[in-house]
TrEMBL record:
A GO CC annotation given for this chain: plasma membrane
Membrane-spanning ranges: 12-29, 41-63, 93-114, 126-147, 153-175, 187-208, 220-243, 334-354, 360-379, 391-416, 443-466
Any one GO molecular function term: polyamine transmembrane transporter activity
Chief place of localization: membrane
Assigned protein family: Belongs to the amino acid-polyamine-organocation (APC) superfamily. Polyamine:cation symporter (PHS) (TC 2.A.3.12) family.
Protein name: Amino acid permease/ SLC12A domain-containing protein
Organism (species): Haptolina brevifila
Protein's UniProt keywords contain Glycosyltransferase: no
Annotated Pro residues bias: 504-513
Disordered, as annotated region: 486-513
Matching Pfam families: AA_permease_2
Alphabetized UniProt keyword annotations: Cell membrane, Membrane, Transmembrane, Transmembrane helix, Transport
Subcellular location: Cell membrane
């Protein structure tokens, strides 16, 4: 595979902001349903606190590690650097599953949304979702520059209705309505929702290998994105409450109604367009992470062997040249083969039930987050002399301290889901299903997480057994005096020790039968 050492750095501050926008925010569409989880005061407190104790530490850690290890893949790279190839490979596989499944959600949502305006059957909705996947894939295959321009258009179109709604509605904001406390609080739903809103900062390192001046790019991007996300999650909600404080009215899509009430049909239509464009941007953001996670996983496991095989095929011409093109990273940042592979996966997944996609890999993010935090601290200890252009001050004590709250929140979330899956009664399960738009019971998250981890362990075990069998066959052949020069099935690795010195007997003379 073509490595990224010599590829041109194409993403500057603006590119990072427009691509990162869909990782860390994407839009306010659907956020109004947060008021189903509790009274406004509790919602605003959580919206104000969580970014500083959860998102900001993550953003700073990502900035430090991205500038110290500027390679595409983000935290899949850092976990492998800190924990070794075995754990790193399993983690890269988890991240790939998380994001390839997450990516498939958004084309389905677009199809479902359009279905409310122009009714379609299941096949038509599925084909529309596949068309969205293919359209974004074509754009990403055109190269990083085109992808950044595409994201710029998506960000402007999805953000414009929100900015107009907020600016026009600010005079209606009522502090009294924002501080209301009447009503019950569903802490599990509220915390889950807030964490989902602010968890995207993990992905900011995904394209670290493609950034111009990483320190400057990360510093300015975080300085722009962090306050922007904080304001976009709070101000439109305050405007909405100023227009209507009846919490029972708030469900996904109610922003559209309020926009029409505030400014007329044109802003209502703007919200509908913005919501769909936002979903396309969220798909692209998720698939960018999935592509680079899969690329890193395959490259670290089989990169050298694949390089050799492709070079041999390319020298022979024909399909070898095609393979070389599919594995080149010169234009797209990640080899087109992985862009096409993830597109194929998404095109299949969009036919699956929406609720299954939403909850399939949610809990799996917890062990991934814990490994990320561990790797940050471990790399401070293991690699103290690595150049860190962006360095969080305070030494190791501060490095440990800023991981405490994100780790505690992640463990608490896992404990809540596990407890609910074990002890939630039928009535409360039905209530949660209704509040989450028909969501599956919490036990599904536990089962799916264990299934994904178990599948990774199974594949790893099979690969190890196959490799040991190959080595055993090579040893038996070598003990019989066979040579890999005469018998190509014997691998080079089997003929040499770890230091490269031959430990097999010399091959027999040429006249030996």
């Amino acid at each position: 595979m073509t490595d990224g050492d010599g590829k041109e750095k194409k993403i500057g501050v603006w590119g990072m902001v427009v691509v990162g926008f869909f990782w860390v925010h994407g839009g306010i569409y659907g956020n109004e349903a947060m008021l189903m989880a509790g009274p406004p005061l509790y919602v605003f407190i959580m919206l104000g606190i969580v970014p500083f104790v959860y998102s900001l530490p993550i953003a700073l850690i990502v900035a430090e590690l991205s500038t110290a290890f500027p390679e595409d893949g983000g935290y899949v790279v850092w976990v492998q650097e800190a924990c070794g190839k075995v754990i790193g490979s399993h983690h890269a596989y988890w991240v790939w599953v998380i994001y390839v499944v997450d990516a498939a959600i958004y084309p389905v949502l677009v199809a479902n949304y359009i279905d409310t305006m122009w009714p379609m059957n299941d096949t038509q909705r599925g084909l529309l979702a596949v068309a969205i996947v293919l359209g974004v894939t074509v754009i990403n295959l055109c190269g990083t520059d085109v992808m950044v321009k595409f994201n710029t258009v998506l960000a402007i179109v999805s953000l414009a209705p929100t900015l107009m709604f907020t600016a026009m509605g600010l005079p209606t904001v009522s502090l009294k309505r924002c501080l209301a406390t009447e009503g019950d609080v569903d802490w599990t739903l509220l915390v889950s929702w807030i964490l989902w809103l602010y968890c995207g900062f993990f992905s900011l390192g995904t394209m670290a290998g493609e950034l111009k001046e990483p320190r400057r790019t990360f510093s300015l991007s975080i300085a722009i994105l962090f306050p922007a996300v904080l304001l976009l999650n709070t101000l439109p909600l305050a405007v909405a409450l100023g227009l209507d404080d009846r919490l029972e009215h708030y469900s996904a899509g109610y922003f559209n109604v309020l926009a029409g009430r505030l400014a007329g049909v044109w802003l209502d239509s703007g919200f509908q367009i913005g919501a769909n464009v936002c979903l396309v941007g969220l798909y692209n953001a998720a698939v960018l992470t999935a592509e680079r996670s899969l690329f890193f996983l395959v490259n670290t496991q089989y990169g050298d062997a694949l390089d050799t095989w492709v070079a041999e095929r390319a020298a022979a011409g024909g399909t070898g040249r095609i393979l070389q093109t599919l594995l080149s990273t010169s234009q797209t940042g990640v080899a087109p083969l992985y862009i096409l592979t993830n597109a194929a996966c998404a095109a299949v997944l969009v036919w699956m039930p929406y609720t299954l996609l939403v909850e399939f890999s949610m809990l799996l993010s917890v062990p991934s987050i814990l490994l990320f935090m561990w790797s940050f601290v471990a790399l401070r200890v293991q690699r103290p002399h690595v150049d860190r252009p962006f360095l969080i001050p305070g030494g190791l004590p501060v490095a440990v301290l800023i991981t405490v709250i994100p780790v505690a929140i992640s463990i608490a979330y896992a404990a809540i889901i596990t407890t609910e899956s074990s002890f939630q009664d039928e009535a409360s399960s039905e209530q949660r299903s209704r509040s989450s738009n028909g969501g599956l019971p919490p036990i599904f998250q536990v089962i799916s997480m264990l299934g994904i981890i178990g599948m990774g362990l199974l594949v790893h075990g099979v690969v190890v057994l196959i490799e040991r069998r190959r080595q055993g066959q090579a040893l038996r052949l070598s003990a019989s005096g066979f040579s890999s020069d005469r018998y190509p099935g014997v691998t080079k690795a089997a003929r040499h020790g770890s230091e490269g010195t031959s430990w097999l007997p010399p091959p027999p003379p040429p006249n030996t039968p």
